[in-house]
Structure formats: C-alpha cells, structure tokens
C-alpha cells in the first residue's frame, strides 16, 4: 500500500499476510500467565522449544544472534542455529577468529539471542555474557557435522574478503588434501562453540490488538539458580 502523503516510501505498513489488506494480522493462538511458567527460564525454554517442534515450527533452533563492538558501540546481527542448551546456557558454533561476531565479542563479551516461532506466535529473547567452549567440548559437536562442513570450517576465513569463488574453492582443495584419508578431523583452533550465559530471558506470547503477554526472568545476583519473574507491558 503506497503512502499518499509521502510517495517516496518503498514499503509502508505491510499487513503481514492478513486477509484484510487494510488491517494488520492479529495474534490469537494463545495466552501466557505467571502460573504457566517454570521457576527456571531454561526449563521454560525447553518446554516451549518442544511445543514448537510439536507444532511443526520450521527449524525452531533458528535464532538471531546480536553482538556489539566497543568502544564504537556498532551493533551487528545474523541468523544462526542454536545447537545446544544445558544448565549453563545457549550454545552456537562459528568461526571465532575472522568473523564480525568474533571481533565484537573480543571487545564486548556479551550477546543477545532472539527466537521467533511464527506458527505458535511466540518469541524468546536472551541476553547475557558469553564464554567459549573448550576444544574438547566443541569437538563433540564438530564430529556430528558432515565431512564437507568440517572441511569448510577449516577452509573459510569467515567474513574475510575473497577475490572470487575460485579462491575459496582452492582453499577447500588444500584442506581436503591435508585431511585426505582421515575420517577424524580435529576441530579448528579458531572455530567452536560460544555459550550465551543468560542473565535475562523474556517469553513473549502474541495477543490480539498487540496487547501481548510478556514475562521477563532476571537472574538474582549472587544467588545461583534464582530468578525474579516480572510481567512487562506489551
């Protein structure tokens, strides 16, 4: 729909799939109350993740990872896969040498995650400090990747400028030759898991008229495993 006041706008108030082109789509699938929540946000996330899987959400492990560099404060975000969840937090895997997120966390070891599950009209936000997994921990996941992905992790200096696709393909050939006839490929020292240790976790359930249900868990300082839970305005 074009804006008659400012026709230069390329997109204005899209309706997001609503059957009525004059009205935005409404969220009406569910509600969320304090009584519905677990005392632990990790237990609650696990329950919601299982529900997303059961509802057929496509790749519910898909998450936006946001980081920021210091001192300039420049923010960057990208879509990745959460590969692990344990009592310590949420784990993603990547190159931690040349990538933009690697540069960010070297100056500012904090990150934010946002999960969006459209089919169940739910969102989860996570914020907290980050920590690298050990090579031994990362090797466990690395071994589950197909061989091509393990070779690719060694070959790609992620986010560095390439002269052309041929340069990347040549690096792949060099790595393939290096590990020729080897089934066990070690995890690269510059690649591995990064755990986001949650200090804040928010659960968001879409509601009609944008009056969403939002609950925020905040870790109690100095109290292991203790969380304060607050309802937030939508």
Automatic annotation (TrEMBL):
Domain Pyridoxine 5'-phosphate oxidase dimerisation C-terminal, chain residue ranges per copy: 191-234
Single GO BP term: pyridoxine biosynthetic process
PANTHER family referenced in this protein's UniProt entry, alphabetically: PYRIDOXINE-5'-PHOSPHATE OXIDASE, PYRIDOXINE-5-PHOSPHATE OXIDASE
UniProt signal peptide: none
Coiled coil: 158-185
EC number: 1.4.3.5
UniProt-recorded name of the protein: pyridoxal 5'-phosphate synthase
UniProt superkingdom: Eukaryota
EC class of the enzyme, as a word: oxidoreductase
The Pyridoxamine 5'-phosphate oxidase N-terminal domain, residue ranges: 53-177
Keyword Oxidoreductase: yes
GO MF terms, alphabetically ordered: FMN binding; pyridoxamine phosphate oxidase activity
NCBIfam families reported in the protein's UniProt record: pdxH, PRK05679.1
Cofactor(s) needed by this chain: FMN
Claim: Flavoprotein is one of the keywords in the record: yes
InterPro entries with a match to the protein in the record: Pyridox_Oxase, Pyridox_Oxase_CS, Pyridox_Oxase_N, Pyridoxamine_oxidase_dimer_C, Split_barrel_FMN-bd
Protein's pathway: Cofactor metabolism; pyridoxal 5'-phosphate salvage; pyridoxal 5'-phosphate from pyridoxine 5'-phosphate: step 1/1; Cofactor metabolism; pyridoxal 5'-phosphate salvage; pyridoxal 5'-phosphate from pyridoxamine 5'-phosphate: step 1/1
Keywords tagged on the record: Coiled coil, Flavoprotein, FMN, Oxidoreductase
């Amino acid at each position: 729909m074009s804006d008659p006041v400012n026709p230069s706008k390329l997109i204005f108030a899209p309706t997001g799939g609503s059957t009525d082109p004059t009205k935005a789509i409404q969220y009406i699938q569910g509600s969320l109350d304090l009584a519905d929540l677990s005392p632990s946000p990790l237990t609650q996330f696990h329950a919601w993740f299982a529900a997303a899987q059961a509802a057929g959400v496509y790749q519910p492990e898909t998450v936006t990872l946001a980081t920021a560099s210091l001192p300039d404060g420049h923010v960057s975000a990208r879509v990745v896969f959460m590969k692990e969840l344990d009592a310590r937090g949420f784990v993603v895997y990547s190159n931690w040498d040349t990538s933009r997120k690697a540069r960010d966390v070297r100056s500012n070891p904090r990150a934010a995650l946002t999960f969006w599950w459209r089919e169940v009209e739910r969102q989860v936000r996570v914020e907290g400090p980050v920590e690298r997994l050990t090579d031994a921990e990362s090797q466990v996941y690395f071994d589950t990747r197909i061989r091509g992905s393990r070779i690719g992790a060694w070959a790609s200096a992620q986010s560095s400028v390439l002269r052309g696709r041929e340069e990347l393909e040549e690096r792949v050939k060099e790595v393939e030759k290096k590990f020729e006839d080897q089934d066990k490929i070690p995890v690269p020292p510059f690649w591995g898991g990064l755990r986001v240790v949650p200090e804040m976790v928010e659960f968001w359930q879409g509601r009609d008229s944008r009056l969403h249900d939002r609950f925020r868990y905040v870790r109690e300082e100095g109290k292991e495993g203790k969380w304060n839970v607050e309802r937030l305005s939508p």
